[in-house]
Design a protein that fits this description.
alpha+beta; 3-stranded antiparallel beta sheet
Length: 119
């Protein structure tokens, strides 16, 4: 009976050594997914704010500063101001955590607004 126990010595260590990298990978992907969703929401919110400000007639540089403040770091901001509508496009790079794993999700927010007619 003592012999059976000696043969199992180190089994738990081996199981942990195999399971730990898988656990770290799952945790990394989970945290990366949360980061992408957070950046997506920030892009959408920033685009909405920008479209609203442009539709009100705010100066473009002021709108760009406000959108950049609300968007994720390093986000690309684009404006399209037409006679009847305004479009703001905000997109960001995926978090470094996911880029390291090879995921290419790109958070993006687009908002349209129609300026109110002057009374």
């Amino acid at each position: 009976m003592t012999r059976g126990r000696r043969g199992e010595t180190g089994m738990v260590t081996a199981e942990i050594a195999v399971a730990l990298p898988a656990l770290v990978l799952v945790l990394t992907l989970g945290l990366g997914a949360v980061a992408v969703v957070t950046d997506q929401l920030r892009c959408v919110d920033a685009a909405r704010v920008g479209a609203r400000l442009l539709a009100r007639g705010e100066p473009v540089e002021q709108v760009r500063n406000e959108v950049a403040r609300q968007a994720p770091d390093g986000a690309e901001i684009g404006f399209e101001v037409g006679p009847d509508s305004v479009r703001v496009d905000v997109s960001a790079q995926p978090p470094p955590l996911l880029r390291a794993v090879g995921v290419s999700a790109r958070p993006r927010g687009v908002a349209h607004a129609v300026p109110e007619a002057a009374p």
